[in-house]
Design a protein that fits this description.
- By secondary structure, the chain is mainly α.
- It has a single domain, classed as Four Helix Bundle (Hemerythrin (Met), subunit A) (Up-down Bundle).
- It is built from 7 helices and no strands.
- It starts with 10 loop residues before the first helix and ends with a helix.
């Protein structure tokens, strides 16, 4: 039994086409994602972790959309790509800094140190890839890619106080995992680049 193509665009295609025809720009999506992460940081300072997690997830989803929308719509620019990468680093840092301040206020030195390590090595994960690609080496190895870091931090925020389903907190464990994985990934990328550049020409 054959199906008849009515020639009408599917719902997904219709939405995509309407977005492309709109005045929406990738930069606007990037800035919206940044705003979501700033809201998350403010909510963390008020100990509203579940809401902060929701805002962080929403902002991070916008971050994943801007690059895809840029390619899909053809509205991307070199500055837009630069802005996207810059805001990604700022967003992660702002949220982690407020988490670090939360632990510092509670005199949890180990968790505070782990946040500092997570900030530093999250930046190093991105920097090692950028520097490697500048040398002509593809460097996407390692576990702590940005999507993975977003998932870990989202879980930590949403379940910072058990989310009303238990008397537990996953914020500190999430930070420990994040710090450990970013350190490991930085080492993996350094080793990968060394191996690639050491190959005989």
């Amino acid at each position: 039994m054959s199906t008849v193509d009515s020639g009408k665009p599917k719902a997904g295609e219709y939405v995509r086409n309407r977005l492309i025809e709109s005045r929406l720009t990738p930069n606007a999506i990037s800035l919206t994602g940044f705003a979501g992460n700033v809201i998350a940081a403010v909510l963390i300072t008020q100990d509203l972790f579940f809401l902060a997690g929701v805002a962080f997830i929403a902002g991070s989803i916008m971050d994943t959309m801007d690059g895809r929308y840029s390619r899909m719509s053809g509205k991307g620019t070199q500055f837009g790509a630069f802005l996207d990468s810059t805001l990604d680093r700022l967003e992660e840092g702002i949220v982690l800094i407020t988490i670090g301040a939360y632990f510092a206020q509670r005199h949890d030195q180990f968790a505070t140190a782990a946040v500092v390590a997570a900030v530093l090595f999250s930046l190093m994960v991105s920097y090692t890839r950028a520097r490697a690609e500048a040398l002509g080496v593809d460097c996407k190895v390692g576990l702590a890619t940005r999507p993975v870091r977003v998932v870990i931090l989202s879980i930590g925020l949403v379940f910072a106080r058990g989310a009303s389903i238990g008397n537990f907190s996953l914020l500190a464990p999430a930070v420990y995992v994040l710090a450990g994985l970013t350190i490991l990934t930085t080492i993996q990328r350094i080793a990968h680049v060394y191996g690639e550049l050491s190959k005989p020409v």
